Amino acid sequence: MPSRRSNGGLLARVNFPLYTLQMLTSRHVLVGGGGGSSKTGVANGFEIFELFHDGVQFVAEEVTRHETGPSVVMNCASHNDGKRTVVVAGQESHCQLYNVNMKIINLENGEVAKGSVTGTGTAGLRQRRRSERDDAEREKEKLKQERVEEVVDSNSNVRHKKLQLVIKPADSIQTDFSKIEPLQRIVRVSPTGKYMATGGTDGCVRLWKFPHMTKVHEMIGHTKEIDDMDFSPEGESLATIAKDGKGFIWDVASGEKRKELCWAVPEGTKYMYKRCRFRLVEEDKARTQLFILSNSTSSKNLSFLQLWDADGGVVLKSAPYKETLSALAVSDNGRFVAVGTMFSGNVDIFIAFSLQRVLHVPSAHSMFITGLEFLPTKLDGPAITSNTEAAVVSISVDNRICVHSIPFRHTLPFWIVIVLIVLSIFGAFVVCSYLGI
């Protein structure tokens, strides 16, 4: 199919390489990364942007920036329960929890607008040692410099409100225990917000109560570092993939392994799973489907975007690629799936059930894609009004944040098609009768 540039394009640039991306609300996106512990002058941390659509394209405005000292933010996850947003970020061998509190302030009188989230949300966390509390207090003092940005009233284009966003570090806990170089590679929070799963270089999958961060299960099965994981839409299953080339489906309640994911690899080739994401099947919620990126260890062989039946452990459909795939996202309504490539920086969006490609963005980034996230349709708060059916945000180590969108496809409802067919048949019958045929 011909290439099409997205309606949005470049949203923003930051001054550090980007490794992780997370939608906090229906219109707030968090990006994280950094230059690492070496003294390169490149900061470590994350920034939060608010997204709008001006009628022509998507635009982004920075809401806040938080630096994390020598620790680069390589992965993160979040949960919004309608009252507050909690972010967990991988910083070296530890997982750091942040409470994100938002206040909407009327510019006219300075009062907090009705419905604003102002709670600190720190109840239930374990007590920390005095040294930890002192460090946290010093961090809180630093974070009192709050960034305030204007927001657009959902009912008009007049800016008469401000969004005050406060980030407060809470608990921190070690989640990886590798003897060589402990590092948390991935963290995910279940859709219900009840559990958090982490994986790292020691190859152990750990399940935690969330947000209290007390350990529930240690799930042993992988022999090498964890690359990715994802909770099923109902939160009952957890899919994990690792550098040992294996993929597992785990039972969250018991911590037991349900199934190993295996497929018929072409003879003489070796494949490694790279990313995995569950898909919500709206038409049949009893079915559990899973998208997986499979890359060949040889550049001569194709890579694949695969749609799996997670319960049966079989591949239902696949789309081949001539280069290595690096990033994956599935829309929260289960209708679309997006992939990013390693070398060309391309972004593609497919219809989820058929794997028909509907958008191809060549060279969306100058380097490999490190993260993709669809703009949500189900999170609390006013959704972004736009002329697009779906939009995906992409990041890369080229420091750029981009958005790629699909315009609404103008199709006739099914019942109208049926009526037109019936009328056509009836018209043909009348004409034939009139002509005596």
Keywords:
globular; 8% helix; five-stranded antiparallel beta sheet; mainly beta; 437 residues
**Per the principal axes of the C-alpha atoms, what is the gross shape?**
globular
Which blocks of ≥5 consecutive residues have pLDDT under 50? 1-8, 114-133, 139-158
Helix content: under 10%
Got a strand count? 29
Give a written overview of the molecule.
The protein is mainly beta. It has a domain at 1-92 and 94-174. Helix content is 8%, strand content 47%. The chain is built from two helices and 29 strands. The strands form seven sheets. It has a five-stranded antiparallel sheet, with helices on one face. A four-stranded antiparallel sheet has the order 1-29-28-27, with no helix packed on it. A four-stranded antiparallel sheet has the order 2-3-4-5, with no helix packed on it. The two termini are 44 Å apart. Mean pLDDT is 84; it is low at 1-8, 114-133 and 139-158.
Can I get a quick summary?
It is found in: Endoplasmic reticulum membrane. Residues 131-142 have a biased composition (Basic and acidic residues). The chain has 437 residues and is mainly β.
